[in-house]
Amino acid sequence: DYMKTIIRYYTALLMCQTIRSTKLLSIELGKVVLKISDTLQYKIGEWHIIPILAELLMSHRKVSEAVTMLYSFQNLAERYQDSSGKAWYYAIAIDILLDTSCCIATYKQCENFYLKNSEALGYQRDAYAVTRLYADLWLWCVRYGAWEIADTWMNKLQEVFVLTPHDSMINVHTAIRVLEGLILTLVNKIEARSILAIVRLQSEIEDLCEKIENALQISKCHEVKFNLRKIYYKQVVNPSANTMKKLTNLRRLAILRNDHLCAEKILHTMQYWRCELPPKMASFWLDHCSSGSATGARNSDITLGRFQYDYTSCVLNNEKVYPFSLPLPRARYF
Questions:
Q1: Rounded to an integer, what distance in angstroms lies between the CA atom of residue 231 and that of residue 46?
Q2: Cα gap 63→308, rounded to integer Å
Q3: pLDDT given for residue 162 in this prediction
């Protein structure tokens, strides 16, 4: 089929340029594929360019473009009643929430999508979409300390998530989400002085780090994100005086690679760990990304329903992003 061949050609170009880290060209190629599909009402066989394009746009801090693309994609998914496409819509919406505080869809909306489509998702041929959705919902719960619900999502995640050497950049991104959640869980166990859980989590984290490193041998797109989590892990288990220097160098690398979102995250982390952030900025993500649905969460503001930092607010605020503040243990087991 002629149209299918054209779309596959542009998709292949996008993947190649993404692996080579030529992000701006990758973004333009992705837009071409979506434009062809939308204009000619031609369904893309696989939606894998969508999370890649969204991530590329977000790495350049093009929040408005990413959200506009996501809304267009939502229309496509609805038009074709494609469960995989719908899963990607909610997964990417939570991605944006996790990275920026900008709320396109709340946790509750994503949870409701799962509850209404759990059977279809169980037979989903696009495992990447389901895996990302589960990982994001799990990480949201972990950040809020909603451990019982987090365990439910983790059980579902373990049924579908596998990271292999030279894996897709989509799955590597998901793995980095999982890595962050495991480190946050480790922080909780350190504060609770749960020795057995600490040992188990450290083993899981180090095993996952090794798998991610193997997967990153072809593409370096996620190297900065991954290294930030590695620095975080080391600071949790063995604090070092050189950490700020490492973060400074990593931020330079992020800027060099046009990963401006990650550069912002690194700067936020440095300021948070040095206690330089105003309290409202340090807790912004927790204060504004809740949706009143996580029973047992540690933050009482979840049930109070503080206002969301929605897309309109984000645009009016010059697309400013507010990263999550990575906590360090308040008590140690050594």
A1: 35
A2: 16
A3: 93
Residue pair 128/173 in contact by the 8 Å Cβ criterion:
no
> pLDDT tens-digit profile of 174-205?
999 999 999 999 999 999 999 999 999 999 99
Cα–Cα distances (Å) from 228 to 61, 232, 256, in that order, read: 18, 6, 15
Side chain identity, residue 151: D
Q: Residues of 241-250 as b/e, b for ≥16 C-beta within 10 angstroms?
A: eebeebbeeb
* Residue 1 to residue 160: CA distance in whole angstroms: 32
Q: How confident is the model at residue 73, as a pLDDT?
A: 85
Confidence category of residue 79, pLDDT binned at 50, 70, 90:
confident
Backbone angles phi, psi at 126, to 5 degrees: -90, 85
The two structure tokens encoding residue 254: 């992020």
**Cβ count near 281 (within 10 Å):** 16
> Is 149 within 8 Å of 295 (Cβ atoms)?
yes
Q: Which two tokens stand for residue 147?
A: 């451990």
